[in-house]
Amino acid sequence: MLYESTRGQFKRVLSAEAIKQGISPDGGLFVPHETALISRDQLKEMVGLSYQAQAAIILRKYLTDYTSEEINECISLSYNSKKFDSPAIAPVCKLNESLYILELWHGPTCAFKDLALQILPHLLTKAAAKTGDLSTIVILVATSGDTGKAALEGFKNVAGTKIIVFYPEHGVSAVQQVQMVTQEGNNVDVVAVRGNFDDAQNGVKNIFGDTGFNKDMLAGNYQLSSANSINWGRLAPQIVYYFSAYLQLVAKGDIAFGEKVNFVVPTGNFGNILSAFYAREMGLPINKLICAANANNVLTDFIRTGAYNRERQFRKTISPSMDILVSSNLERLLYHLTGRDDVKTREWMISLKDKGSYQVDELTLARIDRLFWSDSAEDSETMDTIGSIFDKYGYVTDTHTAVGINVYNKYISATGDKTKAIVASTASPFKFNASVTRAILGDDAVKGKDEFELLEALSAASGMEIPHGLRNLDKKTVLHQRTVSRNDMKEAVNNILKPTN
Fold first, then answer.
1. 20, 61, 83, 113: which is the annotated catalytic residue?
2. Where are the domains of the chain?
3. 28 and 13 in contact (C-beta within 8 Å)?
4. Counting beta carbons within 10 angstroms of the beta carbon of residue 384, is it exposed (0 to 12), middle (13 to 18) or buried (19 or more)?
5. Is 113 annotated as catalytic?
6. Contact 264, 290 (CB under 8 A)
7. Nearest to 255 by CA among 94, 91, 45
8. What is the C-alpha radius of gyration for the chain, rounded to an integer number of angstroms?
9. Are 122 and 300 contacting, i.e. CB atoms less than 8 angstroms apart?
10. pLDDT digit string (tens) for 141-157?
11. Is the CB of residue 41 less than 8 Å from the CB of residue 21?
12. How far, in Å, CA of 324 to CA of 306, rounded?
């Protein structure tokens, strides 16, 4: 399997090179040059297999330059009982006869990013060895909350790598921030950015796009790469859990083999739902992909109209991992839906950068409409949904999952579609415990308590144990205190890597 750039101005490469580089030198994103397929017979054979075995089948389709032994080693190092507290890795919980929750937060940092970021370091170090690269791989990450901690945890103390995470100074929850700034490891750095997530993300993109800076890094024996979902090594592992969820329902008898389902995905950077798109393209029986947005509903507007416009008010919400106005992975979808038209894709991305907006053509919009449906939820709706789900089912959802459930209910009202649906639950409710506790217990339950005290309150109310990765966070030592403006991110990278300069 070869990989090509969405902007068409770089040669095709093998998966190891695509994963090592992270982003194409022409500014585009790497995508597989052909569709990987799972036949109906292969899908049937996957019913009842372990998550690890299913992952091996899927990843072998995309990482053809890795040996089966290498892929199996990466999987065994990543998806095991030391890392995940559920033997299913990503278990599915049934809420009612038509709605299921895919719990993607049983990993070490209690967020869906663990499913990709536990395996990415192993894929990346093997990629470096395969390509004969002896440079230190420097992972640059922009995070809206969850990616940062998951990447730090995945890459900490991995030989031959360094990782620098940028997060918006006031754009993550207190728990998320403390998770990052207390991160231990001999190769990790965390930097707060004065601005929002898009500022951090654009700063990282600009660093990757600065050829002079990259040449300077190479001269110092540093190879820049990414752990954001712009890296194909992030997306490919995420395809697995959509197959796993479907096959779990088949194995339990909740759906018939071959029966179509809808997936509902709380979405910010479009990477998670794009992985579901790839699963559908591979042959997984998916009817509709429901894109759930919060008040930063740039994706909802786009899916409905074909007009993408980032020139709008940025809203800080109680679902901060979705507080994004520039959804990077949408570029990959547009490339595919235009029949791999790199000229159109490049023009739209240039327009987004220069003008803040673009409009796709009618055929592309029609193709989007056939696959996707979208709506958004305000914070008040998210809070009401958390409370109502707890009251009705005794089930506790985080603020992002609640956005998904709320939008799913709007989808049912708008379409009447009775297809069974699986909501991707992207984070443990304990990561956003202030909002969740308020939603299920009321305002008085949170008065005078910080997020760390509320971990105990939420545990008592829900009967759920506080996840290991979130216990005693407030007692850990802060190790990272660097703060920079969005214009000084490149200098920060230089100072971290070359502190004597």
1. 113
2. 92-109+233-432
3. no
4. middle
5. yes
6. yes
7. 94
8. 21
9. no
10. 999 878 889 999 999 99
11. no
12. 18
